[in-house]
Specification:
The chain is α/β, with parallel strands linked by helices. It has 28 helices and 39 strands. Among the domains are: 215 residues, no CATH class; 203 residues, P-loop containing nucleotide triphosphate hydrolases (Rossmann fold), CATH 3.40.50.
Length: 1132
């Protein structure tokens, strides 16, 4: 049994039962004994007496913890808190008969004893007592309160009686039912009523709703004798068949929705739950049974990205040339020339053969045109790949291809060495000075392989990067691939090629910034900075080596990477303030624990893995900082990042830059930044340098947008306006930059790309006709080692915070106890030690952080089978939230640290939606989701953070019965999870909306005129004249680019609004320029003159100027991490 199945089994025993109490006289939990308040023992699988249905309501400010969109509904709440009935609906074929089995247990009170000093024969030595205790989130006397174990001896000392309850399994009830249904019938020894309602369908099949309700009446509000526990309903066919649950036969209105029907049309449920989830079993293509399930589970199968095959004549045909994907032969030139073209053509041929097999799939007639359209896109992808293969016949293109493979192979080798994988001494990176391995690497001995889609994507986009015609240059190519599939490596491969191509083909003009890669969150950006720096370092090593051999084809300008983000992550200037690079460096030198205080976005050398800051402060004999141990050296007008290891190739300086002043002075080859930071370009006199303006170099030729689905709503709307200005500048020479985007979850991508980039788009890999097979990825169904297991819980009689606390407590205790007993492997112990706890609001997050100090440890004691297996309650908590202090690189290192007895891993990671991007920590394997997120895309992204390594992940979703949306997801749990990509919501971007135009259009105008019409100096705002040819041309290009976002027949209103508002802004600027003496772009120190760009909150001077954003969002601090657990010393 897999470790996660053991964890979930323990959780089931503790949340539903039996299993929480002490074994009864039989020596098993079948007749277990529980002490204390029975209403506080289990939290699911119960049916309450009718009189108790409205006994409790949520109190306090529980509703405030939920978001506004998911506020608690009192009516739903009162009906849902203590349910007395559950049911399931299923469909049976005409003439079928099914057998319905109902199971349940009761807990009967035993005679009250004065003390619990003794135990029944066969019982365990540990007695479990649950008792109410007031807490911040509960009220004494409520059903919905926290619990605490009360030791038997203490109870005896206090001379207090203890109520004891013994489990009794009720006699199983079996009833046969046909399509006519069943009238209300007593079951479970008369304690419940079974009823089957039947609705005959037009074809004679029947839709049955099976329900069981508790008929008992409670004697008082605290009575538990009439409550039914571990209730379940199972229906199995006796004659005939259980059919798939019918769905509406309507044809969706949009192309995308109809295509989703093609892809997922075969994946329909066999049942739905009512107040409970439904499950089913398939044997030989037929439904063997349907049942209710209080703790439903569903596997989300991990795609197989590495093996290509197709179905042919009833068997699987495997791609015969797996050696093609090895990077070393491609990097060395061993595979080149005609042989390379021939073998790559074989890949395209095999893909086309797969398309032919797809065309043979039977599709409903009303969806046939949609299926053909989908296959047409696949054929178009194949054509583009074939064009890419042909372009590789060009000598320069082939050389750039080889160099890109070489750089990626070197970067992979460096990453392996920097991590410590394979070291004989077992030391893990990053390393203290003197511990890293700096010996030469035999790169060609690395057996790394490309995933087929990565090589195919390179071939797909190659024609739009190299050659004379550049077909599809205006097409936004969207990599749509599952999380963990290698999207980042795919576009880094393309980036390396493009940077080499610029140097080899364009010579000196190919320097400067060639690639811009933008993200939304700084956490993700900081992570990608370290990864991308590895590739850039490899490219620079190649350039240096060629130069020593007299080959100057890559120029004398180093390959470099720059980080362009907010001032909290990287300095804006060399000096001038405490936040400058000089001030931060001095603080670092003075810090007692420099590694914890590192204010810079890089922690270790990408080439060898040496730490750029020591674990503890290093000084010379005179007490001054010993700079030899530090990788950051600053002066008032310079900043250098270097590897402290003398034998490293980058001891003299790493080609990584992150001070704004540095980036604008010498634009890096690869610019990586947050999308909102680019709002500063109109404010900066030399801001256009990052877009190639005034540098003597070609403008960026490749733009990458990662996590495209996040560029939506207000951020995406403003980004669309600013993007028009940036592209106007980058395309001033007549050539558009190529745009690549990536995502794992998106809908409506074509409209989104049109609104943001003013271009058409294409998704790669183009989906096939079935969700399980897109050629480049196939769902590895049936292999539980390659799946994430999802489980759902919906508490009864508990407030949401308490229910979440109990759920976390059982997961934490179960994983700990199994590890202590040796029932988990070392890797499983590591993966399930850390519990990631996702929350939909900061209020919910705060409550759970508080619960880690009280309710959760207390409840864990109840769940422990014996005292020696109680998990220590001094949790180490790492909270992911905004406005905290822990540096991002350090926080990532803490999350990545493997568990050991000497240095335990982080216990709990409470977080909000920031976990959904950028947290690629392979060791994380356990997550609790507190409430269904608003968006399915968010849910998919967040839960995909666990189970990315070799240990399969477990995700437990905790639903609130008083939230209709939560309840709906719980009742349809399996169906939702087995096709949740089909539930991803369309994104919305509206740059033509009036509020967006009012906030961003003038900034786009200033950007284009200032940097594209020769009016860069601050005082040049006064020189604005729309009649000047160069100014008029710049404005015209901007207008056309803005209108490109709205090219539909129904979008005339938006186009008219854009044109009229742009003309209005032009006229305003022209009027100010003519009337106001000394007009500037922005405020300059010592000069209180009217300025065009006014910060929000500042007053205009002489009524001139526009309030202008300096960031594309209101909240500038997206993420930092805070250690709220044990003392910081524990982390070192």
């Amino acid at each position: 049994m897999l470790g996660r199945d053991k964890v979930l089994k323990e959780a089931r025993n503790r949340l539903i039962g039996p299993g929480l109490g002490s074994p009864g006289p039989s020596g098993t939990h079948d007749d277990e004994i529980i002490e204390g308040r029975m209403s506080l023992a289990y939290m699911m699988g119960m049916l309450f007496p009718r009189a108790k249905r409205s006994a409790n309501d949520l109190g306090g400010d529980e509703a405030e913890a939920a978001s506004d969109e998911d506020a608690e509904d009192p009516l739903s709440m009162s009906n849902a808190m203590l349910p007395s009935a559950i049911g399931t609906s299923l469909c049976i074929a005409r003439g079928s008969r099914i057998r319905i089995r109902v199971d349940a247990a009761i807990y009967s009170p035993l005679p009250v004893e004065k003390s619990a000093g003794g135990s029944d024969e066969g019982a365990s030595s540990k007695q479990v007592t649950v008792e109410a205790t007031p807490s911040a989130d509960s009220q004494a006397g409520d059903v919905a309160v926290a619990t605490t174990p009360v030791e038997t001896e203490e109870r005896a000392k206090q001379d207090k009686p203890i109520q004891r309850w013994q489990r009794c399994q009720l006699e199983q009830s079996n009833k046969e039912v046909d399509t006519a249904g069943l009238e209300p019938t007593p079951v479970l020894e008369g304690r419940a009523i079974l009823e089957v309602l039947s609705r005959e369908l037009p074809n004679g099949d029947a839709l049955l709703t099976v329900s069981v309700s508790n008929t008992g009446e409670a004697r008082n509000a605290k009575s538990s004798e009439e409550t039914l526990y571990q209730v379940s309903i199972l229906a199995e066919p006796v004659e005939g068949r259980i059919l798939k649950y019918p769905s509406a036969r309507y044809v969706p209105p949009t192309d995308e929705e109809r295509e989703l029907r093609v892809i997922y049309g075969q994946q329909r449920p066999y049942a739905v739950g009512h107040g409970v989830a439904a499950d089913w079993k398939i044997d030989d293509g037929r439904c063997a049974w349907v049942k209710t399930e209080a703790l439903p589970t569903a596997h989300v199968w991990r795609p197989d990205f590495d093996n290509l095959s197709l179905a042919e004549n009833g068997s699987r045909l495997v791609f015969p040339d797996e050696e093609l994907f090895k990077v070393a032969p491609l990097a060395s030139g061993e595979l080149s020339g005609p042989e390379l073209v021939t073998r790559l053509t074989g890949l395209v041929d095999f893909y086309e053969k797969w398309i032919e097999t797809q065309a043979k799939i039977s599709i409903d007639e009303e969806l046939a045109d949609d299926a053909e359209r989908m296959l047409g896109r696949c054929r178009r992808s194949a054509d583009r790949m074939r064009q890419g293969v042909e372009i590789l016949r060009d000598e320069d293109t082939a050389r750039c291809f080889r160099l890109a493979n070489q750089a990626m192979l070197m970067a992979m080798s460096h990453a392996t060495r920097a991590s410590g994988r394979g070291r004989q001494d077992g030391l893990q990176g990053p390393f203290e000075l003197g511990k890293a391995d700096t010996d030469p690497i035999d790169y060609l001995a690395n057996d790394a392989k490309w995933r087929p889609f990565q090589l195919a994507f390179f071939l797909l986009v190659l024609p739009s990067l190299a050659g004379d015609e550049l077909p599809d240059r205006d097409l936004v190519d969207v990599i749509w691939f599952a999380t963990g599939g290698g999207k980042t490596e795919a576009y880094l491969f393309v980036s390396a090629f493009e940077l080499f191509r610029r140097r080899i083909v364009e010579r000196k003009a190919g320097g400067g910034t060639g690639v811009i890669n933008r993200y939304t969150y700084r956490f993700l950006t900081a992570d990608q900075f370290q990864r991308t720096a590895g590739m850039i370092c490899a490219m620079e090593m190649i350039r240096r080596e060629l130069a020593t051999k007299g080959d100057t084809s890559l120029g004398d300008e180093e390959f470099s990477i720059g980080l362009f983000v907010g001032g909290e992550v990287s300095p804006n200037s060399f000096a001038g303030s405490e936040d400058g690079a000089l001030g931060r460096t001095q603080e670092l030198f003075d810090a007692a624990n420099p590694r914890d205080a590192n204010p810079f976005p890089i922690e270790s050398c990408p080439a060898c893995g040496t730490l750029l800051v020591p674990e503890s402060r290093k000084t010379k004999p005179d007490g001054s900082p010993d700079e030899a141990y530090y990788g950051f050296l600053a002066t008032a007008n310079s900043f250098v990042t270097r590897c402290p290891e003398e034998d490293c190739a980058f001891h003299g300086g790493l080609p990584v830059y992150f001070v704004d002043e540095q980036l604008l002075r010498a634009p890096p080859s690869f610019l990586l930044g947050t999308i909102d930071k680019f709002a500063m370009i109109p404010w900066k006199e030399n801001g256009g340098a990052l877009l190639g303006v005034g540098t003597g170099r070609s403008p960026p030729s490749l733009v990458i947008q990662d996590e495209l689905h996040l560029i939506s709503g207000p951020l995406g709307t403003l980004a669309g306006i600013y993007e028009a200005a940036f592209e106007t500048l980058m395309s001033a020479g007549g050539t558009l930059p190529k745009v690549i985007a990536s995502t794992a979850t998106i809908r409506n991508a074509s409209v989104q790309c049109r609104r943001i980039y003013g271009r058409p788009s294409a998704v790669f890999p183009s989906p096939g006709l079935r969700a399980e097979d897109s050629f480049f990825s196939k769902l590895d169904t049936g292999n539980k080692n390659r799946s994430r297991l999802y489980a759902g819980v919906m508490a009864q009689g508990l407030r949401a915070t308490v229910a979440a606390s109990w759920t976390m407590a059982t997961l934490l205790q179960s994983s700990y106890e199994l590890a202590e007993k040796g029932d988990l492997t070392e890797d499983e112990t590591d993966s399930y030690w850390t519990l990631v706890a996702y929350h939909n609001s900061k209020r919910e997050l705060g409550r759970i952080v508080n619960a880690t100090r009280d309710e959760i440890p207390t409840r864990m004691k109840v769940y422990a089978s014996d005292e020696p297996f109680e998990r220590p309650s001094n949790f180490d908590v790492l909270e992911l939230k905004a406005h905290a202090e822990t540096p991002v690189p350090r926080a990532r290192q803490l999350l990545a640290r493997r568990h050991s007895a000497e240095q335990p891993a982080i216990d709990v990671v409470p977080c909000t939606n920031i976990i959904s991007v950028g947290v690629d920590i392979d060791r994380l394997g356990l997550m609790m989701v507190n409430g269904q997120p608003k968006l399915s895309a968010e849910y998919i992204q967040a839960t995909s953070r666990v189970g990315r390594g070799k240990v399969p992940g477990l995700v437990v979703a905790a639903y609130s019965p008083s939230k209709p949306r939560d309840r709906s997801h719980y009742e349809a749990f399996r169906d939702y999870h087995e096709r949740f990509y089909s539930f991803v919501e369309p994104t919305s971007v509206t740059p033509g909306a009036l509020p967006a135009i009012e906030r961003g259009l003038h900034a786009a105008l200033v950007t284009v005129v200032r940097h594209g019409a020769g009016l860069r100096k601050n005082s040049a705002a006064k020189q604005f004249n729309p009649s000047l040819p160069r100014v008029a041309a710049a404005i015209e290009r901007l207008e056309q680019r803005l209108l490109d976002a709205y090219n539909g027949e129904q979008e005339a209103e938006e186009r008219e609004r854009i044109s009229s508002k742009l003309a209005e802004k032009v006229a305003e600027w022209a009027g100010w320029a003519e009337a106001i003496e000394g007009l500037q772009y922005c405020f300059a120190s010592q000069q209180r003159r009217p300025h065009l760009l006014v910060r929000y909150g500042n007053k205009k001077i002489d009524g001139a100027g526009w309030h202008t954003l300096q960031s594309m969002r209101h909240v500038d601090k997206e993420i930092t991490l805070e250690d709220v657990g044990i003392a910081q010393a524990k982390h070192s």
